[in-house]
Amino acid sequence: MLKFSALHSAICNLCHTPGTPPCHALHFPNNTREGPKNVDDKSYAAKEAGGELEVYEYDPGELKPQDVEVQVDYCGICHSDLSMIDNEWGFSQYPLVAGHEVIGRVVALGSAAQDKGLQVGQRVGIGWTARSCGHCDACISGNQINCEQGAVRRL
Asked: Residue ranges of the Alcohol dehydrogenase-like N-terminal domain (predicted)?
């Protein structure tokens, strides 16, 4: 599962069902979400710089009000993911789950995300993400990556 804000803020957690490809770029282990926890969330993670990808289980916490949980069907891995796994930029945190271009289906909506035009079962695409305010000129024009109040968290 992938959890992301309906207001285009940071991707928070991702899991895979057996047989799906490894995905995910950002990992926030202290995240919380409303509702029952799924302690069987799995992904593939590098546990150290340059490490091999290994099965990684984690508890994503509770779904927050503006979060959307997405079952990942497909996920891209690009060169920035390899740079993060190898800690080429000096700020990677481990375990690190790579991949950040996702196609999947909405499986849960936080209480505040329900009026954002998404529906459970809807197919969605998620590009590169970073925390953004959702209200400034950059965000409103679709350029969340340029949000002055935004910040990339734990790439």
From this structure: 64-147
Task: Determine which helix (DSSP H) or strand (DSSP E) holds 123, and give its type and residue range.
Answer: strand 123-126
Q: Any idea where the domains of the chain sit in the sequence?
A: 2-146
Report the distance separating Cα 47 and Cα 7, nearest Å: 30
d(CA 93, CA 90): 9
**How large is the average pLDDT for residues 82-110?**
92
Q: Which helix (H) or strand (E) holds 137?
A: helix 137-140
Q: How far is CA 125 from CA 69, 76, 78, 87, 113, in A?
A: 12, 11, 16, 27, 16
Measured in degrees and rounded to the nearest 5, phi and psi for residue 87 equal 55, 40
The pLDDT value given to residue 116: 84
Q: What is the largest CA-CA distance in the chain?
A: 42
User: What pTM did the predictor assign?
Assistant: 0.59
CATH topology of domain 2-146: Quinone Oxidoreductase; Chain A, domain 1 (3.90.180)
